[in-house]
């Protein structure tokens, strides 16, 4: 079993996650529109590409730095690795790149990611599966990180005693 799930009842964070996703998508879409409108030049393709990068950067930067987007923070959620450690830049990158397929308006919008969260055993979207992460309540993330820190402290103590 995934350690974090022992503390997170099945689906406990799912509804909160959907509300957080709605907020994040609204904010990222506004940033997308502002970026597209403010880009100089005539190249529609370049404007769409730049605006899409702004949309994706909204998720990548926040999840890489803090382990949560604004929407997740509002609803008390955190992205963590399956072993309970904090998610970092690599996990954020994998989650963000998967959004190209999961949140693409030309590929059924947010439907693929939402269906994956609803139907997957551990309530993960495709990006979570790829990055080996899970979204849990902040209290669960904190408990998992304390447990991981305790393991590291015990291991260091054992190593120092062996010397």
Provide an overview of this structure.
- This protein has 163 residues and is mainly alpha-helical.
- The protein is 69% helix and 6% strand.
- The protein is built from 8 helices and 2 strands; from the N terminus they run ααααβαααβα.
- The chain has helices at 3-7, 14-38, 44-66, 70-74, 89-102, 111-119, 126-131, 138-162, and strands spanning 77-81, 133-137.
- A two-stranded antiparallel ribbon has the order 1-2.
- The radius of gyration is 18 Å and the shape is elongated.
- The model has no long low-confidence stretch (mean pLDDT 83).
Q: Strand order of the main beta sheet, please?
A: 1-2
The level of helicity is: 55-70%
- Unreliable stretches: none
From the N-terminal CA to the C-terminal CA, the straight-line distance is: 35 Å
Structural key phrases:
mainly alpha; 163 residues; two-stranded antiparallel sheet
């Amino acid at each position: 079993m995934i350690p974090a799930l022992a503390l997170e009842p099945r689906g406990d964070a799912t509804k909160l996650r959907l509300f957080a996703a709605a907020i994040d998508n609204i904010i990222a879409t506004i940033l997308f529109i502002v970026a597209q409108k403010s880009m100089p030049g005539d190249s529609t393709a370049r404007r769409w590409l730049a605006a899409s990068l702004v949309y994706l950067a909204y998720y990548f930067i926040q999840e890489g730095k803090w382990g949560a987007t604004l929407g997740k923070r509002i609803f008390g959620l955190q992205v963590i690795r399956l072993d309970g450690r904090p998610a970092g830049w690599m996990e954020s990158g994998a989650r963000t790149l998967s959004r190209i397929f999961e949140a693409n308006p030309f590929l059924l919008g947010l439907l693929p990611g939402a269906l994956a969260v609803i139907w997957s055993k551990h309530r993960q979207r495709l990006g979570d599966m790829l990055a080996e992460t899970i979204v849990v309540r902040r209290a669960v993330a904190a408990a998992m990180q304390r447990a991981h820190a305790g393991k590291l402290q015990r291991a260091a103590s054992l190593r120092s005693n062996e010397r």
